[in-house]
Amino acid sequence: MRVAIAGAGAVGRSIAGELLENGHEILLIDKTPSAISVERVPRAEWLLADACEITSLDEAALQRCHVVIAATGDDKVNLVVSLLAKTEYGVPRVVSRVNNPKNEWLFNESWGVDVAVSTPRLMSALVEEAVSVGDLVRLLRFSQGDANLVELTLPPESTLAGIRVGDVRWPEDTSLVTIIRGSRVLTPSPEEALEPGDELLFVAAQAQEERLEELLSARHGPGHRPSTGREDGPRNT
């Protein structure tokens, strides 16, 4: 997979190194001569150019890229790069760094952004995730479809503990993608029973997050049990 990274600072170089280790073809673009440090990421291609200029992106052959990552320290630059990558070159996947959380609302499909990564938000989310049991934590926002990657650690008191994944009627526009149990990463199967302490990762529409949290947490009245399966009986899949 060919990936172009706009911004060859510490963030861009780190991303490049990780992706190179995974066998991808990487192009680093930066307009600052001092940022061109070929010796730091020798296996990457390097281009001294302004990623906001069409002529530079033509030289980078951006139309051949499967992914473009806007990783500069300037939100305005990242937005312009994202928009050009999507609208002028039809890049299938555009990922953009958000430096100032106040600008996060701009990083959506209108600006060509498929995934916006806000470092401050991600760090605060990871802190919340580490200390929160039974509370939904938003880890990542996907611009398309108004969906988020969210996490919840199943509390011991949850009425879903011991219930099979296939027997739970999950909210609409919600998908359980991973169960982290201790050191294991499990692909959810209909027969897998949920256990207290499971870290559950979902891709969910933002409008469904409250319903999902209510379903999974222990915040139910006495004798209340969240719905599993359909009204006429469990759903076996």
Q: In words, what does this structure look like?
A:
This protein is 22% helix and 25% strand. The model is unreliable at 220-237 (pLDDT under 50). It starts with a strand and ends in a 21-residue tail after the last helix. The chain has an 11-stranded mixed sheet, sandwiched between helices. The protein has helices spanning 10-21, 54-59, 75-87, 119-131, 209-216; strands at residues 2-6, 25-30, 45-48, 67-70, 93-98, 115-118, 137-142, 147-153, 174-181, 184-186, 199-205. It has 5 helices and 11 strands, in the order E-H-E-E-H-E-H-E-E-H-E-E-E-E-E-H. The radius of gyration is 21 Å and the shape is elongated. It is α/β, with parallel strands linked by helices and 237 residues long.
* Gyration radius over CA: 21 Å
Helix-strand pattern, N to C? EHEEHEHEEHEEEEEH
Q: Quote the beta fraction.
A: 25-35%
Q: What is the β-strand count?
A: 11
Largest sheet: 11 strands, mixed
Helix content: 10-25%
Low-confidence stretches: 220-237
Helix/strand class: alpha/beta
The strand line-up of the biggest sheet is 3-2-1-4-5-6-7-8-11-9-10
**Count of helical stretches:** 5
Q: How confident overall, as mean pLDDT?
A: 85
Shape: elongated
Alpha-carbon distance between the termini? 35 Å
Protein name: TrkA family potassium uptake protein
